[in-house]
């Protein structure tokens, strides 16, 4: 979930977005009327999570989206013409947040925080811009300083992904995909939903069978170690509802998303299993050899560290493997903290 950036600290820039809807409530995402509609006259509308009803002349086709959102739409067979946000690594390969997107077939308007080419965006003649919201009414990765100009070019849609449980954004993204033309009753969509449900059951069973395993979701940069608050991250909140026992930081930073610790104090909390932020903006295990406190953490010494997709791909296809991996890690973990 979003965390720290190489710009001045702010709630928006330091979001560590990590609900009480049950799995059964997800059934509505694969049936029923979509939130968007297209009349015989060709008008299309969709009410987003800002309470804004977006209207266009006909179903949007030229779609520009935050890369993670574009990856979700791709899972449902909806393609974007342009993306913004971490899309390619220095080697030109797809960033982890790009999911299964073919990143060479989309126009990348910006690959890092604060980057967004307004000229290229306008040239795409977009019908709509879509992004996640990790705080109220704020479109993720749309630069604040140029937001007004960007949003004057085409209507925008924002979907909330913070301070809720995972089922809610999954359902909302499915509704948007359906409104944009996706078939939620297709074999691919129904199989993805089935896999998600089965993975959730497996995680619940693993957490119950290996009770007492303490899990910490964390992220690190050169200066700080971030212990994440599971209540604010959609994925972590859902895992907690399924029975996963998380470390709960007791001195949260402003916004409540995490507690930032100096590396000297990285051992403040005891954990048997660490989920470590796998985004390109965060340090990975191979980068942390110079941090003595990291190497001395019991979970690290026991090799009980797994990647944490802290900005999940909010589709059933994107999230099912994450839940499967966590279930396996908990099943195999031993008490070490």
Brief summary of the model shown:
This protein is α/β, with parallel strands linked by helices and 337 residues long. Helix 5 packs parallel to helix 9. The radius of gyration is 20 Å and the shape is globular.
CATH H-level superfamily of the largest domain: Nitrogenase molybdenum iron protein domain
Q: Return the string of H and E elements.
A: EEEEHEEHEHEHHEEHEEEHHEH
What is the count of distinct domains? 2
CATH topology of the largest domain, by name, is Rossmann fold
Kindly name the structural category. alpha/beta
Taken from the alpha-carbon principal axes, the silhouette is: globular
> What Rg is obtained from the alpha carbons, in whole angstroms?
20 Å
User: Could you tell me the strand content as a percent range?
Assistant: 15-25%
Mind telling me the CATH class of the largest domain?
Alpha Beta
Give the distance, in angstroms, between the N- and C-terminal Cα atoms.
Answer: 24 Å
Multimeric state: single chain
Output mean pLDDT. 89
Unreliable runs, pLDDT <50, ≥5 residues? 1-35
Q: What does the main sheet amount to?
A: 6 strands, mixed
The counted number of beta strands is 14
Number of helices: 9
CATH-derived architecture of the largest domain = 3-Layer(aba) Sandwich
- Kindly state the percentage of residues in helix: 25-40%
């Amino acid at each position: 979930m979003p965390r720290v950036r190489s710009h001045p600290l702010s709630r928006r820039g330091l979001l560590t977005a990590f609900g009480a809807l049950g799995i059964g409530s997800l059934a509505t995402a694969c049936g029923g009327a979509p939130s968007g509609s297209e009349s015989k006259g060709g008008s299309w509308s969709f009410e987003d999570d800002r309470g804004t009803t977006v209207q266009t002349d006909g179903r949007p086709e030229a779609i520009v989206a935050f890369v993670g959102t574009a990856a979700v739409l791709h899972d449902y067979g909806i393609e974007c013409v342009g993306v913004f946000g971490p899309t390619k690594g220095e080697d030109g390969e797809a960033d982890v947040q790009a999911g299964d997107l073919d990143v060479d077939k989309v126009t990348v308007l910006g690959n890092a925080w604060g980057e967004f080419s307004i000229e290229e965006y306008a040239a795409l003649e977009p019908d709509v811009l879509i992004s996640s919201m990790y705080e109220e009414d704020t479109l993720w990765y749309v630069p604040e300083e140029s937001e007004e100009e960007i949003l004057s070019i085409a209507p925008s849609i924002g979907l909330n992904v913070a301070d809720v449980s995972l089922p809610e954004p999954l359902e909302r993204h499915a509704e948007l995909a359906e409104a944009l033309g996706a078939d939620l009753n297709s074999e691919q969509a129904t199989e993805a939903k089935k896999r998600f449900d089965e993975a959730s059951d497996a995680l619940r069973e693993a957490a119950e069978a290996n009770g007492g395993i303490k899990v910490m979701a964390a992220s690190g940069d050169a200066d700080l170690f971030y212990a994440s608050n599971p209540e604010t991250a959609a994925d972590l909140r859902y895992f907690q509802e399924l029975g996963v026992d998380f470390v709960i930081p007791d001195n949260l930073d402003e916004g409540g998303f995490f507690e930032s610790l100096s590396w000297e104090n990285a051992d403040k909390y005891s954990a048997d299993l660490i989920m470590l932020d796998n985004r390109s903006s965060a340090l990975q295990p191979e980068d942390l050899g110079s941090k003595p406190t990291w190497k001395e953490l019991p979970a690290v010494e026991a090799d009980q560290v797994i990647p944490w997709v802290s900005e999940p791909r909010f589709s059933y296809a994107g999230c099912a493997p994450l839940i499967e991996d966590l279930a396996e890690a908990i099943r195999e973990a031993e008490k070490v903290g």
